[in-house]
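FAQ
Q: What does a multi-component entry look like?
A: The components come first, one per line:
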Amino acid sequence: MNFPHDDETAYSLDIVAEITGIPPQTILHYQEAGLIRSSTYDDETIRTLRRIEHLHSSLGVNESGLRLILMLMNEVDRLQNDLRSKR
Amino acid sequence: MSVEFKDYYAILGVSRDASADDIKKAFRKLARKHHPDVAKDKKAAEEKFKEINEANEVLGDPEKRKKYDQLGMDWQHAGEFPHAAHRGRAAAPHEFNFGGTGFSDFFEQYFSGASRYGFPEEMHPRPRAATRKHRGNDIEGDILVTLEEAMHGSVRSVSLQMADPRTGKLQTHSFQVRIPPGVTDGKRIRVPGQGEPGFSGGEAGDLYLRVRHAAHPDFNSHGADVFHELEIAPWEAVLGAEISVPTLDGTVKLRIPPGSENGQQLRVRSRGLPKGKSGERGDFHAVLSIQIPEKLTDEERSLWEKLRSVSHFNPRTHRQA
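Then the predicted structure of the entire assembly, as tokens:
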């Protein structure tokens, strides 16, 4: 059986564009703007891109707002995980 | 979809005013007894182990425990709790139930850390007209993964029941989810196409399952590193010792150096969880916890008294000017 959702999967730019429906140039732009990691594209990148699209298109959040929201969400995630591992 | 109230105190066999330490001890004792690796009836033990873990997840977290206690009181007053009203949103078309994630519906309803969607639901407006191609929403949930599974990887059967947003009809999808070796706590596993169905020919959303490492009676994880609380006697701390310590894959002999302190960490390289496919592994850390004997025999007492009279050790020297 094929498991395409293996978390080790690294995708190419074209594949990420296909999965998310976001044009490659836009993805590269997000990358340059520091909204997504620039090293590798994985499932976490896809999730982040979907969040960006949603925040941008449904809620009209601009790029500075996006950066702040993503940073805060990552921080909340990190703190929650830290807290869990301390118990 | 109504949920059944879970009595987490009864599951751990502790009273409602139990201290955090009592809860920790009760959890460890039960988790050791029902750990699927040691029990004879593996299937029954697994169910029990999940239940204990869930109870510990809630009662072991002061915030969740507070919420749970409040919930319990409301439940008693209201009979069955009107969960939709509690979450402050309409019920029917957006509810869903997971199966095979290791958490009960009750837990998922009230204590699942992540929102079920990438965002709170009110931020996901429904498309006004179903005429435009529209991708289905992503769904997020938690999946309980034991450290043994995280060590070796596994395949889990998960099911997701939800109402079709167009017809309101309940549908259950079952699928396999691969838990990759070395998966860390908090990592999200993407299951493509298992989110909400799309509209007007749009693709279905994805399902993201956030990995929650099951609490283990002997180990904690932090990333790929594994921590073990190693209880030692005061004389072992002072004089040093050699102790066999369990790890996730067999025991290791640890040398406790003389003069070790409480809370000191001894590291064993590369005996933690795998780091993805790299072949590398995290480290194993034994955290020393000096235990004081509770009951003394007459002979032991006289030896401690002798130590008191001959020792020049003063732990409070810094206080003397």
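Q: Is there any commentary attached?
A: Sometimes. For this entry: Chain B has nine helices and twelve strands.
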